[in-house]
Write a structure and sequence with these properties.
The structure holds 2 protein chains of 2 kinds.
Chain A (H helix, E strand, L loop, with lengths): L17 H6 L14 E7 L5 E7 L1 H5 L3 E6 L10 E3 L4 E3 H8 L4 E2 L5 E7 L2 H10 L1 E6 L6 H4 L14 E2 L2 E2 L6 E9 L2 H6 L3 E9 L11 E6 L5 E5 L4 H12 L6 E5 L15 H11 L3 E4 L2 H7 L6 E9 L5 E13 L6 H7 L8 E10 L13 H19 L3 H8 L18 H10 L1 H4 L7 E10 L6 E7 L5 E5 L7 H13 L6 E5 L16 H28 L7 E3 L2 E4 L2 E4 H5 L10 E6 L7 E11 L6 E11 L6 H20 L30 E6 L21 H13 L5 E2 L3 H9 L2
Parallel strand pairs in A: 1-16, 9-11, 12-31, 14-15, 18-19, 22-23, 29-30
Antiparallel strand pairs in A: 1-7, 2-6, 2-8, 3-7, 4-5, 9-10, 11-19, 12-17, 13-14, 13-16, 17-18, 20-28, 21-22, 21-27, 24-25, 25-26, 28-29
Helix pairs in contact in A: 10-11, 11-19, 12-13, 15-16, 18-19
Chain B lengths: L4 E3 L4 H8 L5 E4 L5 H6 L7 E4 L9 E4 L3 E5 L4 H5 L2 H6 L1 H7 L5 H4 L4 H7 L6 H7 L3 E6 L2 E6 L4 E3 L2 E2 L6 E7 L6 E8 L10 E10 L2 E10 L6 E2 L1 H5 L8 H14 L10 H23 L1
Parallel strand pairs in B: 1-3, 2-3
Antiparallel strand pairs in B: 4-5, 5-10, 6-7, 6-10, 8-9, 11-12, 12-13, 13-14
The chains are: A alpha+beta, B alpha+beta.
The complex binds flavin-adenine dinucleotide.
Chain lengths: ~750, ~290
């Protein structure tokens, strides 16, 4: 690990948005106010699957205070085309269909109509007065059931993309892909031990604290202004433009502060509806979701059915592996099974691999990304099978992982060859940790470990830096700040400029005011937007050299810059001194950069979990938990630790209690935070963290994204710990008390 | 949220006259059940009658001979903050600290917990174990009923038209008496009981003279498991007696399978929780 040679990078300054957040002044979407504001409400489907026979809005429209009602019939006609907002191409009809159902409702909670009224209460009452006649259809709720030939079909027009070819006939399988490396059949013939297991995981929600919200104003000039909390203001702009079939340039999106997203605040739900209501009424319209709306009407992460088979020689060398991944997309294709296939064996160097992935539609909410989407389900399977292999072979669980760990040059079954990665270093940090070295004593207790991978993404980011005469700079970016990225981006600019980070004032601005910037997702902001900030800062330095050259009557190339000062021929000036002279040396200095970086560095993360299982109730108590992750370079170590702790906690919740508890007819029975059991502070130990730094050569400071990989190993680590505590192998998530108790009974 | 009328009477008589003839009226105590239900459309309510300004509903007083008078609207935080309650009925103080979290406890009442009549209500099995009586007032005057008779079905109780709960009366604890409530929840707070057991014991000269067991979340109403208590009378407190009572509790339970647990699991929990609660109560006596 390199020693810090930086002034700002690697320190822990106070965050720029701290005062606003601590005092409650930060403005979130629900805080938005405007003269003439109307309030909207959404009518949602009570059925999991039904044909819409008739919608009658007359009673709602007649209700005093109601100003407008919209349904899918209010969408302008649009050609059938594919749209792509950074997560793959999707037919526009699916995007629109999820915003407001047309023809059929595909899940309970599916939005059917929107109402605008003079108060939120009136809108809510009026929504109930909209008469919708449904013809209920049989529903299908899990991937294995939806894949049956006689299953109820969600989309009449859906044809399976079967290994790249369009198949004949109706199906709920949107895609079947296969990755092959070597020859797994032959590989298994050379092994001494083979373990094959079946797994299933429940649908879980990201559980961000702030419900979705949107305010839209369709102005008289035909321009639309949207205020909302989103992970990607440009995604909202582009998706809303597609749904409404208007030009992108007619929409301006102002991102408000965001109370969590974890992938769930990338799709649009309310924005196009608010815009349509505003167009009809001529007034701004604000719509807020309730928690129930969030659970039933937004995108959770897929439930899944998984089979994993791994073979090893007696000395613990993994020789062959196969995975079968069937993920539930929810109502529309896009189950994140692709990433699952990329990650399922990514931590290991296995010469013979076959991976089959299935993207399956079911009558549940259309799924969205959730922190390393698809990878946690897959790692739960792989990492518990590896644990069983280690046990059968009598090898320490960390040792077997180290013997087979992926390294620079290892080829993944889905194609790419790893560049410099930190899998070995992470596992060594596990083995060397005080936690792993300390004994765990007492009855009904056990320790488990697991490792996980997330590839991270690059994607475009833009940044401008305006130099102020007082020597500070204003940094303008488009990445909505979920994890403290204003500061981690500003720190990188400060490092390049050689000024204190307090002298950098970052702001996240609307889509009219900054160059295109992709979503806050894929752990990309500190990497990509950070890189844009570095380059914009470099642009500032280049221009400041020109100014210094002008003052000192030399050429810019002769001016040396570093650590916040400029020197040439015995002259020297600090950044501040030079900034004071920009007026007289040619006017304002503005640095700018747009990047679309290729050198993304994937991140490995491991977890060590100590648990105690009550043998009489099946309840698991997490006694101690450590998260270990390769950050590449931790720009702001506190925020890296925060990400590791947050991901761990979500992984623990996913592992132990969280699930969409569905009735047979597709109703979510626990759509409240009381019954959807995310862990509270009283359910968790302090999450310990160990940051590993294997610099990513693709970034100036070596940054890898750290937002996601940390959620991948916890469920598997807990399952392995529960096995040692209670003697039962859990292969179904969540490992809730009744599930563990049942496993103990059938031991 | 739907519109509703609101009234804040100052006396029991005024409250009764407001409720009488208005089947769509509900008493409001802390509102932690009522308002949540109205907002989520699980209950419609045309008139909300706030009970918090009625003196009798706010009474909290202990008399060493007569016992405790607990007004129906007294919020949990006052109960566990009360010195007399903490020393005479530690189990009641504990249950008041179990419902919801700190914010909920600032509002939620034991009276509301009982009148909401959920099978999972945490305070009710303990009230039954403590031998509490309900004091009701209505158009026809007042009456007193035992808590175990109060709930009749999920969300239903024997309050008649125009009737309300005024207070709960809990007998003074006799020497050698102890009570305990234990619930099982997957999390450590903010959760609804998968099953719960409230027990009380009176131990004299090393023998159980009297015992009561009641269960949460395993029947359409908070369940008085009379047989489980009777199984203990005359026995020496210890594993054998507690096991028998636990088995009687298991037999008394008639749970359903839902998102909180299966029939089998809940029956099993009844036995585990009854035994553990009895052990805890017995420890307290010694
Ligand atoms: C986040 C959260 C957590 C919770 N956790 C728990 C928990 O751990 N355990 C638990 O048991 N419950 C829990 N609850 C439910 C609720 O808090 C309790 O049942 C509480 O005791 C209700 O008391 P209240 O004063 O708020 O009742 P209210 O909501 O005011 O009233 C409840 C019902 O009783 C009626 N009522 C109230 N007073 C009278 C009266 N004097 N006469 C006639 N009818 C009356 C009302 O009309 C209403 O129908 C929780 C609720 C929330 C929101």
């Amino acid at each position: 690990m390199t020693k810090t040679e930086y002034q700002v990078v690697g320190t822990r300054p106070v965050r720029h948005d701290g005062a606003d957040k601590v005092t409650g002044r930060a403005l979130y979407g629900a805080d938005f106010q405007m003269a003439g504001l109307l309030h909207g409400a959404i009518l949602r489907s009570p059925h999991a699957h039904a044909r819409i026979v008739r919608i009658d809005t007359a009673k709602a429209l007649a209700y005093p205070g109601v100003k407008a009602v919209v349904t899918a019939a209010d969408f302008p006609p649009a050609p059938d085309k594919l749209v792509d907002f950074g997560e793959g191409a999707t037919p526009l009809a699916y995007v629109r269909g999820n915003v407001l159902a047309s023809g059929k409702v595909l899940y309970r909670g599916h939005a059917v109509a929107g109402v605008a009224a003079t108060s939120a209460h009136i809108a809510e009452e009026a929504a109930q007065l909209i008469e919708v006649e449904y013809e209920p259809l049989p529903c299908v709720l899990t991937a294995p059931e939806a894949m049956q030939p006689d299953a109820p079909i969600l989309h009449d027009g859906l044809r399976t993309a079967e290994l790249g070819e369009k198949a004949q006939g109706r199906s709920n399988i949107s895609e079947h892909f296969r990755h092959i490396l070597g020859d797994s059949k032959k590989g298994f013939a050379e092994t001494d031990v083979v373990i094959e297991r079946e797994f299933s995981t429940a649908t879980v929600h990201q559980g961000y604290i702030e419900p979705h919200n949107a305010t839209a104003l369709w102005n008289n000039d035909g321009r639309v202004h949207i205020w909302c909390s989103t992970q990607g203001s440009f995604v909202v702009r582009d998706a809303t433009a597609c749904v409404l079939d208007i030009a992108q340039s007619r929409i301006r999106v102002t991102p408000m502060e965001i109370g969590g997203g974890f992938g769930g605040k990338i799709p649009v739900y309310l924005e196009p509806v608010a815009a349509l209501l505003s167009r009809k009424t001529g007034r701004p319209v604000k719509i807020l979701m309730t928690r129930k709306d969030v659970f039933e009407g937004t995108g959770p992460t897929p439930g899944s059915y998984i089979r994993v088979k791994i073979g090893a020689t007696s000395d613990g060398k993994l020789v062959a592996a196969e995975a079968y991944l069937a993920y539930e997309a929810g109502a529309y294709p896009g189950a994140m099974v692709g990433p699952g296939g990329m990650c399922v064996f990514a931590a290991y160097d296995i010469p013979n691999v076959t991976i089959d992935g299935f993207d399956v539609v079911v009558n549940k909410p259309s799924t969205a990304a959730y922190r390393a989407p698809g990878a946690t389900n897959a790692a739960f399977a792989t990492e518990t099978v590896i644990d069983e292999l280690a046990e059968q072979l009598g090898i320490d669980p960390v040792e077997i992982r180290l013997r087979n760990a992926a390294k620079e040059g290892t080829r993944r079954a889905d194609g790419p060859k790893f560049k410099r990665i930190g899998c070995v270093e992470v596992l060594e940090a596990v083995r060397g940790s005080e936690h792993y070295q300390s004994p765990l004593e007492g009855p009904n207790r056990g320790r488990g470990v697991a490792v996980g991978f997330w590839f991270n993404v690059g994607l475009p980011s833009s940044c401008t830096i305006n130099v102020n005469a007082d020597g500070t700079v204003n940094l303008v970016e488009g990445s909505t700040d979920i994890g403290g990225t204003r500061t981690s981006v500003a720190m990188q600019a400060a490092e390049v400029l050689g000024i204190p980070v307090e002298d950098v004032h970052p702001s996240v601005v609307d889509t009219d005011s900054v160059g295109f910037t992709a979503v806050t997702g894929g752990s990309r902001v500190t990497f990509s937007t950070g890189m844009a900030a570095c380059e914009a800062a470099g642009d500032v330095i280049r221009q400041m050299k020109e100014r210094a050259a002008k003052l000192w009557e030399t050429v810019p190339d002769k001016v040396e810059a570093g650590r916040g000062s400029f020197r040439c021929n015995g002259h020297s000036a600090t950044f501040k001194e030079l900034a004071a002279k920009v007026g007289e040396t040619g006017g304002p200095v503005v640095g700018r950069a747009t990047v679309n970086p290729r050198g993304v560095g994937g991140s490995f993360s491991a977890a060590i979990a100590d648990v105690e299982v009550d043998p009489e109730t099946g309840k698991t108590t997490v006694l101690r938990f450590t998260s270990i992750q390769d950050a590449g370079k931790a720009i702001h170590p506190s925020y890296v630790e925060g990400q590791m702790q947050g991901g761990s906690v979500q992984g623990i919740g996913w592992g132990l209690n969280e699930e969409y508890y569905m009735s047979r007819d597709g109703m979510m029975m626990n759509s409240s935070l009381l019954d959807y059991r995310m862990p509270t502070s009283l359910d968790l130990p302090m999450i310990e963290t160990i940051i590993v730094e294997v610099p990513n050569p693709g970034h100036p400071f070596g940054v890898r994204g750290v937002g996601e990989a940390n959620i991948v190993p916890p469920p598997a680590a807990l399952a392995n710990a529960i096995y040692r505590a209670a003697g039962v192998r859990m292969r179904r998530l969540p490992m809730s008390p009744p599930a563990v108790m049942e496993a103990i009974w059938s031991k | 949220m739907q519109w509703f009328d609101y009234a804040a009477p100052r006396s029991v008589a005024e409250a009764v006259s407001l409720l009488d003839g208005r089947p769509d009226a509900r008493i409001l105590a802390g509102g932690t059940d009522l308002l949540v239900q109205i907002r989520s459309r699980r209950r419609t309510c045309g008139l909300v009658v706030d009970g918090k300004r009625i003196p009798e509903l706010n009474e909290l007083s202990f008399d060493p001979a007569a016992g405790l008078t607990l007004g129906a609207a007294v919020p949990c935080y006052r109960i566990y903050g009360d010195r007399a309650v903490r020393s005479a009925y530690p189990s009641l103080a504990e249950v008041a600290g179990l419902i919801g979290g700190t914010a909920i406890q600032g509002r939620a009442s034991i009276g509301g917990n009982l009148c909401n009549s959920a099978p999972s209500a945490d305070a009710v099995p303990l009230l039954i174990a403590l031998g509490a009586q309900c004091r009701l007032a209505g158009p026809g005057g007042g009456r007193t009923v035992a808590v175990e008779q109060f709930c009749t079905a999920p969300g239903r109780n024997l309050l008649g038209a125009g009737e309300l709960l005024v207070s709960l009366r809990i007998p003074a604890p006799a020497p050698g008496f102890a009570a305990h409530y234990l619930r099982f929840i997957p999390r450590n707070e903010m959760d609804i009981a998968v099953a719960g057991a409230g027990v009380s014991l009176r131990i004299q000269d090393g023998v159980i003279r009297e015992a009561r067991v009641a269960l949460a979340s395993v029947a359409p109403v908070p369940l008085f498991a009379r047989a489980a208590g009777e199984a203990l009378a005359g026995k020496t407190p210890g594993p054998e007696a507690f096991h028998q009572a636990a088995e009687a509790a298991r037999a008394a339970a008639s749970p359903i399978t839902d998102m909180r647990g299966t029939v089998e699991y809940r029956r099993h929990l009844c036995a585990v929780l009854t035994r553990r609660a009895l052990e805890a109560a017995a420890r307290e006596v010694h």
